[in-house]
Amino acid sequence: MKFIADTHCHTVASSHAYSTILENVAEAKKKDLKYIAITDHTGAIPDAPGAWYFQNLIILPKEIDGVKILKGIESNVFGPSGRIDIPEFNERGGLDWVIASIHEVAWSGAKTIENCTKAWLNVAKNPIVNVIGHSGLVNFKYDYEQVIPVFKENHKLIEINASSFSVRRGCYENCKKIAEICKKCEAQVIINSDCHIASHVGRFDDALKLLKEINFPEYLIINANINSFENYLKNYTNFFN
Questions:
Q1: What phi and psi, each to the nearest 5 degrees, are found at residue 63?
Q2: Kind and range of the H or E element at 70?
Q3: Is the pLDDT score of 238 beyond 60?
Q4: pLDDT by residue (tens digit) across 70-81?
Q5: Chain centre to alpha carbon of residue 144
């Protein structure tokens, strides 16, 4: 299987990551990726860059050395309301790509299945969100059967996060269940590295292992097909504007 994009990549702007944008781009080119998204953390993460960093992403070219650059963000889901933190300037104008993720440091409220289900149902209604980030967290389970069809209905891409299997212990069975339900209801997924160092850009092995285990169909993996991926960009982002 050949991948054309990695849309969850961090840089030194989030100081728990260790590579620059240009280093990530160089690695993407080396691995023959056509797209990369720069998605540093938003303000609720302690070492996240400030709002000006995201506003100034406008200076990035759309392409560097043959690799197209999506100006993105990894926002935090704060609780059952589904509110995410995103710079005020962006109303789908300043950014190309928005990931919504639950991080324990930003969450408010009890970590119940009911609360997490409400949160994701509300995130699904947010038109600026593209990707549901690493949602197989052990402490933040939700009603997968109820929510995943709603993600599909609202054109959200469900992330299979390759880093989860090494840094988020115990999430394998949750991620497998999510993938099985995506397969059953034909919801599109996106495999991402969630890289924090350039050498991990495009490194999807652990996610692929899981998907092969359940015989997941390639046509539902949006970043395994250039036409599917670019159609999504045309319909649900500003990238080609």
A1: -150, 135
A2: strand 67-76
A3: yes
A4: 999 999 999 999
A5: 17
Block residue for tokens 């994701």: 120
Backbone angles phi, psi at 135, to 5 degrees: -90, 10
Phi then psi for residue 97, to 5 deg, are: -150, 125
Q: Find residue 97's DSSP bridge partners.
A: 72
Residue 19 makes CB contacts below 8 A (sequence gap 6+) with: 11, 12, 27, 195, 196, 197, 198
pLDDT of residue 86: 83
**What are 138's two structure tokens?**
């052990």
CATH number of 5-236: 3.20.20.140
pTM (two decimals) = 0.97
**Domain limits of the chain?**
5-236
Residue 43 sits at the vertex; the CA angle it makes with 34 and 129, to the nearest 5 degrees, is 50
Give the confidence band of 88 by pLDDT, cuts at 50, 70, 90.
Answer: low
